[in-house]
């Protein structure tokens, strides 16, 4: 059993709680030892990055310094946390004067970061370490006949991605390993508008509508995504899209780990399926 | 537009200012090919789309650009970044412009994003973790309370599905985190 230091991120405890709740049972079923990073703090996220870079780097670096002590790879299921932690890690390695100043600030809490942590996205770990074959071998309820559109979003594959940044395939392979039918759709790695949905809803709703239209038009019965922001935009804002564009979408949007959990035979309750806004129960009923 | 651009003051240090922020270093390599603008999902909303914004940095049109809504419409999708033939990281340049705009007090009133970012940062600073409900309420109170009414069903849906806790989570090491952030501030902020 391989060990990892686990960083859930703030959303996984609130707006993306179906993600936060479904990760541990799936990890257990796949023999992964995820140990939550003790007293982790917010990664800083894109907003902090866009307000003050040194402070933002310090927010991320406190987590990196704490993770370095554990000696394991730092794994997060959140695409934005991944970009922030990974990019900060790169800046600290590539820009020695910047690293010195971050370490000077960390010293105020008797911490130091030596640059030794490998930051990874949970989806990448599932794909690379566990592998689609390894996941397939543990499937007890194959999702035969279920048409799933894998939605990568942006920050899993850009700019630090392990997969093709424009035409990724890792989630496709994992969905196939669950026995489901993979829906091929051109917009699978296009932007959903991310957090612009709050300050500029018009811009984001337009992008969300394009995605839902494209997924549904290609035959999807549900979508899966690894990203908290993508999931909220496509799931919680789906009714807003329907009233704005006079559409009738009723497309469940699951976190990758939720769908994987169903195929692994984990009970619906442990996967927090009742917390999805557009209920996935109708399309998942044959497999539960 | 051309008229105001001629009248706006030209600031020669603007490119260096962007270069000094991690991620902004490569701006001088831009060849103005327009790949960034062609790739941007929100470019039609920007006062000056990415390619033009980058040209304005190099031309020293600091006030003009920083008081526009441009960079605030960047959704950080990084499509420009992976397609840029010169590896200049346009999305990171937009983040650098946001930092400089806030530092200079030049943020536009025609985008609510600067206020959202500030509400987010206050929340992260205050508890060590982001308290999403608190941040949303603050954002709408500070920008457009009427928009909150329109989006209320979304918030209610999240709440009813147990996805919007009513209380913030605070980290144990809040004192340490504050000490780190205060030290960072003393070291000169975003430079």
Summarize the structure.
Chain A has 288 residues and is an alpha/beta fold. Helices cover 45% and strands 10% of the residues of chain A. Chain A starts with a strand and ends with a helix.
Describe the model.
- The complex is a heterodimer of chains A (288) and B (191).
- Chain A has helices at residues 17-29, 45-49, 53-70, 79-94, 96-106, 122-130, 132-137, 170-177, 201-217, 228-235, 238-245, 256-263, 281-284; strands spanning 2-6, 32-36, 74-76, 119-121, 147-150, 181-182, 222-225, 253-255.
- Chain A has 288 residues and is α/β, with parallel strands linked by helices.
- Chain A has two domains: 2-122, Glutathione S-transferase Yfyf (Class Pi), Chain A, domain 2; 140-287, Rossmann fold.
- In chain A, the strands form two sheets. Chain A has a four-stranded parallel sheet with strand order 2-1-3-4.
- In chain A, helix 3 packs across helix 4 (79-94).
- The two termini of chain A are 28 Å apart.
- Chain B is mainly alpha-helical.
- Chain B folds into two domains: 2-103, Fumarate Reductase Iron-sulfur Protein, Chain B, domain 2 (Orthogonal Bundle), CATH 1.10.1060.10; 113-186, no CATH class.
- Chain B is 55% helix and 0% strand.
- Chain B contains eleven helices and no strands.
- Chain B has helices at 2-7, 14-19, 35-39, 50-58, 62-66, 79-83, 90-103, 113-127, 132-142, 145-160, 174-186.
- The longest helix of chain B is centred in the last third of the chain and has 16 residues, at 145-160.
- The radius of gyration of chain B is 19 Å and the shape is globular.
- The relative contact order of chain B is 0.11.
CATH topology of the largest domain in chain A: Rossmann fold
Mean pLDDT metric of chain B = 92
Overall mean pLDDT of chain A stands at: 97
State the largest interface: A-B, 70 and 69 residues
Considering DSSP H and I runs of 4 or more, what fraction of the residues of chain A is helical?
40-55%
Q: What is the CATH top level name of the largest domain in chain B?
A: Mainly Alpha
Radius of gyration of chain A: 19 Å
Number of helices of chain A: 13
The quaternary state of the protein chains shown equals heterodimer
Largest β sheet strand count, sense and barrel closure of chain B: none
Indicate the CATH class of the largest domain in chain A: Alpha Beta
CATH architecture assignment name of the largest domain in chain A: 3-Layer(aba) Sandwich
- The count of domains of chain B is 2
> Stretches of chain B where pLDDT falls below 50 for ≥5 residues?
none
Number of strands of chain A: 8
Provide the succession of SSEs of chain B: HHHHHHHHHHH
Roughly how many Å is the radius of gyration of chain B? 19 Å
Structural class of chain B: mainly alpha
């Amino acid at each position: 059993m391989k060990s990892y230091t686990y960083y859930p991120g703030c959303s996984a405890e609130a707006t993306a709680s179906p993600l936060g709740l479904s990760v541990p049972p799936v990890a257990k079923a796949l023999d992964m030892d995820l140990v939550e990073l003790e007293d982790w703090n917010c990664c800083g996220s894109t907003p902090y990055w866009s307000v003050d870079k040194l402070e933002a780097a310090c927010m991320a670096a406190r987590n990196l310094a704490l993770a370095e002590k554990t000696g394991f790879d730092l794994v997060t299921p959140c695409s934005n946390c991944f970009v922030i932690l990974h990019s900060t890690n790169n800046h600290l390695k590539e820009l020695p004067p910047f690293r010195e100043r971050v370490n000077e600030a960390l010293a105020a809490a008797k911490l130091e970061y030596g640059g030794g942590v490998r930051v990874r996205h949970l989806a990448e770990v599932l794909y690379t370490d566990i592998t689609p074959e390894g996941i397939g071998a543990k499937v007890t309820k194959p999702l035969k006949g279920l048409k799933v559109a894998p939605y990568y979003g942006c920050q899993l594959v850009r700019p630090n991605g392990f997969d093709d940044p424009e035409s990724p395939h890792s989630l496709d392979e994992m969905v196939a390993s669950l026995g489901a039918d993979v829906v091929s759709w051109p917009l699978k790695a296009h932007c959903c508008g991310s957090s612009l949905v709050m300050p500029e809803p018009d811009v984001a709703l337009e992008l969300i509508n394009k995605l839902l239209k494209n997924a549904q038009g290609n035959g999807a019965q549900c979508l899966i995504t690894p990203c908290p922001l993508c999931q909220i935009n496509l799931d919680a804002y789906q009714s807003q899209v329907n009233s704005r564009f006079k559409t009738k979408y009723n497309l469940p949007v699951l976190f990758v780990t939720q769908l994987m959990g169903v195929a692994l035979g984990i009970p619906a309750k442990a996967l927090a399926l009742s917390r999805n806004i557009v209920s996935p129960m109708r399309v998942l009923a044959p497999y539960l | 537009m051309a008229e105001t651009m001629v009248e706006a003051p030209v600031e020669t240090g603007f490119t260096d200012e962007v270069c000094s922020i991690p991620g902004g270093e490569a701006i001088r390599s831009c060849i103005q090919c327009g790949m960034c603008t062609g790739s941007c999902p929100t470019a039609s909303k920007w006062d000056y789309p990415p390619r033009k914004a980058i040209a304005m940095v190099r031309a020293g049109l600091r006030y003009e650009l920083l008081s526009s809504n441009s960079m605030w419409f960047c959704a950080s999708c990084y499509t420009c970044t992976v397609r840029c033939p010169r590896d200049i990281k346009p999305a990171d340049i937009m983040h650098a412009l946001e930092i400089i705009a806030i530092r200079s007090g030049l943020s536009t009133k025609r985008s609510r994003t600067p206020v959202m970012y500030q509400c987010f940062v206050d929340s992260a600073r205050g508890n060590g973790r982001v308290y999403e409900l608190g941040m949303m309420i603050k954002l709408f109170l500070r920008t457009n309370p009427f928009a909150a009414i329109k989006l209320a069903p979304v918030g209610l849906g999240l709440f009813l599905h147990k996805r919007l806790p009513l209380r913030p989570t605070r980290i144990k090491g809040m004192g340490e985190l504050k000490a780190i952030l205060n030290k960072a501030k003393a070291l000169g902020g975003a430079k």
